[in-house]
Amino acid sequence: MANEHYFSANPSSETREREITVTLADRPLTLTTAAGVFSPDGIDRGTKVLLGSVPAPASDGALLDIGCGWGPIAITMALQSPDARVWGVDVNERVLGLARGNAAAAGAANVTVALPSDVPADLRFRTIWSNPPIRVGKDELHEILLTWLPRLEVGGEAWLVVSKDLGGDSLQKWLVGALGEGFAVDRVSTAKGFRVIRVVRSA
Q1: In the predicted structure, residue 11 carries a pLDDT above the cut 90
Q2: For the chain, which end, N or C, has fewer CB atoms within 10 Å of the first or last residue's CB respectively?
Q3: CA separation (Å) from 77 to 34, 35, 122, 147, 177?
Q4: How many CB atoms within 10 Å of residue 124?
Q5: Which residues are CB-neighbours of 5 under 8 A, at least 6 positions away?
Q6: In the predicted model, what is the mean pLDDT of residues 49-69?
Q7: What pLDDT digit, counting tens, does each position of 75-131 carry?
Q8: Cα–Cα distance for residue pair 81/126, rounded to 1 Å
Q9: Nearest CA to 187 among 200, 203, 178?
Q10: Residue 127: CB atoms within 10 Å
Q11: How far is Cα of residue 64 from the mean position of the Cα atoms in its chain?
Q12: What is the largest CA-CA distance in the chain?
């Protein structure tokens, strides 16, 4: 049941909020997590690998965190690119509330946290960062990625972190075929059992 909670729309567990101290964009922050969300005790290993591997996000335009959880990736993007509008999307109502509160606590006023259906359909993104929800299952994961990755602007980049043991290599191969021409997909690095995959839109 532990995995069920964090990608359920409305977790059934008690909330049990707690404060944690983390460092995002080189700033120490006190943020709030809760039961029934992904990695409530701090920044998970995959997200740490991603944040330690990516170049700075685009300085302006629209940026996206797919599966934002309580907000570490979206907040990092927002603090590094204060002139950009950062969107954090998730389906879990509990984490949406946490991410909004954490963005405010971090001084990241340029973050919008929303359900996927609330993001304007015509919005295109210059940078996407994501530790995608692998455990939702292959079919649903593929649907999520094919919803958002084609919404990159031309020249835009997406950076994904995926555990090797949970199919990082096979996901990279699938992305090549699923996205087709107009997208370049490559593995940028491997660290601590995770693959960092880059997707660039060229046309």
Answers
A1: no
A2: C
A3: 22, 25, 21, 21, 29
A4: 15
A5: 11, 12, 13, 35, 36, 37
A6: 97
A7: 999 999 999 999 999 998 899 999 999 999 999 999 999 999 999 999 999 999 999
A8: 12
A9: 200
A10: 26
A11: 7
A12: 47
Secondary structure class of 133 (helix, strand, coil): coil
Instruction: Read off the pTM.
Output: 0.92
Token pair for 119? 């993001």
Residue type, 180: G
- The letter for the amino acid at 65 is D
User: What's the confidence (pLDDT) of residue 166?
Assistant: 77
Residue 9 has a pLDDT of 54
Contact 142, 66 (CB under 8 A): no
Instruction: Say if residue 2's pLDDT is above 90.
Output: no
What is the spatial distance between Cα 38 and Cα 68, in angstroms, rounded to a whole number?
A: 10
Of 164, 131, 127, the C-alpha closest to 48 is: 131
